[in-house]
Structures are given as C-alpha cells and as structure tokens.
Automatic annotation (TrEMBL):
This is DNA gyrase inhibitor YacG. Keywords: Metal-binding, Zinc. It comes from Massilia yuzhufengensis. Belongs to the DNA gyrase inhibitor YacG family. Its cofactor is Zn(2+).
Length: 60
C-alpha cells in the first residue's frame, strides 16, 4: 500500500483505487486545489504569447 500526502492539507492518504479523491484526501481539498488553478495561483512555465508571436514573425 502506498501512502502519499494530500497536496492541499498534507494529511496522509492511501493511494488506492478505493480513494476516489486521490491524490487528495477529500472533495474539499480537491476543490481548493481546483480553485487555486482557476485563480492562477499555480502556473506552468513556458513561453508567453508575445514570445511565441515574436518567434513566428522572426521565421517569416
């Protein structure tokens, strides 16, 4: 059995098919995480839209 920490609250939870909220411990923690993404508290690094546009112009 694998045990992981809930990314939201840190509570230890089992990583099993029976845990429908994995890797979260509850629906509440899952929704808190979704809200953080929606509020742009998390980001994935990458080129900005302006950088991509500049690259396309340079290729032409």
């Amino acid at each position: 059995m694998t045990v992981v920490a809930c990314p939201t609250c840190g509570k230890k939870v089992e990583w099993t098919p029976a845990n429908k909220f994995r890797p979260f411990c509850s629906e509440r923690c899952k929704q808190i995480d979704l809200g953080a993404w929606a509020e742009e508290k998390y980001t994935i690094p990458g080129a900005t839209a302006a950088d991509v546009q500049d690259d396309k112009l340079a290729e032409e």
